[in-house]
UniProtKB/TrEMBL annotation:
Identification of the protein by name: STAR4 protein
GO BP, sorted A to Z: cholesterol import; cholesterol transport involved in cholesterol storage; intracellular cholesterol transport
PROSITE patterns recorded: START
Pfam families given in the database record: START
Record-linked Gene3D superfamilies: 3.30.530.20
Transmembrane segments: none
PANTHER family linked to this entry: STAR-RELATED LIPID TRANSFER PROTEIN 4
Domain START: 10-207
GO annotation, cellular component aspect: cytosol; endoplasmic reticulum
């Protein structure tokens, strides 16, 4: 078990990594799934042997309210059907925290429930916000869970120039689920999970 990292340099490095993903040209992405709410692309990850996923869609709400629903806090558990528990383990200044959360089984439990411990950081980006995270090897792994690992991931949320009450939400996710899993099952689950994330989020914001 590692000690907690110094929050400030980790936050800076994480933000820079996400901004780098955000500038990857369109030609490097391949469409994985399209729904009425979002489009999901993927490309080979440089962090591990799986994929870096990019998801994008327009959400009818202001940036701050959307990000409040995504980042660690009371809203997330209410609407995110994949997340089953969430605890804030440590809080730092500068909108940083360490959270532990668990996810439900997927694909008829081919993918068993997972546990993650993530460092999370929310900061301004252009006219909007970026909330991003990375997993840490921290805390005891609880029984009945496989400990997954999130490589640098995050959500950019910026108001649309002509419709400031609408926001463009772009996510970058690269999750190493670990455990004995067929890669094809993981890839199917990731694309669907990201598309569902948008539809669930939109429903939550309307309530």
């Amino acid at each position: 078990m590692d000690l907690l990292p110094d929050a400030a340099p980790l936050a800076t490095k994480l933000r820079n990594t996400l901004v780098q993903y955000h500038s990857v040209p369109d030609s490097e992405w391949r469409v994985a799934k399209r729904t009425k709410d979002a489009t999901v692309w993927r490309k080979p990850s440089q962090e591990f042997s799986g994929y870096l996923y990019k998801a994008q869609g327009v959400v009818e709400d202001v940036t701050n309210r959307i990000v409040d629903h995504i980042r660690p806090g009371p809203y997330r558990l209410d609407w995110d059907s994949l997340m089953t528990t969430m605890d804030i383990m440590e809080t730092f200044e500068e909108n940083c925290c360490v959270m532990r959360y668990t996810t439900a089984g997927q694909l008829w439990n081919i993918i068993a429930p997972r546990e993650f411990v993530d460092f999370s950081y929310t900061t301004s980006y252009e006219d909007g916000l970026l909330t991003c995270g990375i997993s840490l090897d921290y805390g005891e792994v609880r029984p009945n869970f496989v400990r997954g690992f999130n490589h640098p991931c995050g959500w950019f949320c910026v108001p649309l120039k002509d419709y400031p009450s609408h926001s463009l939400l772009t996510g970058y996710i690269q999750t190493e689920l670990r455990g004995m899993l067929p890669q094809s099952a993981v890839d199917t689950a990731m694309s669907s999970t990201l598309a569902n994330f948008y539809s669930d989020l939109k429903k939550a914001l309307k309530t």
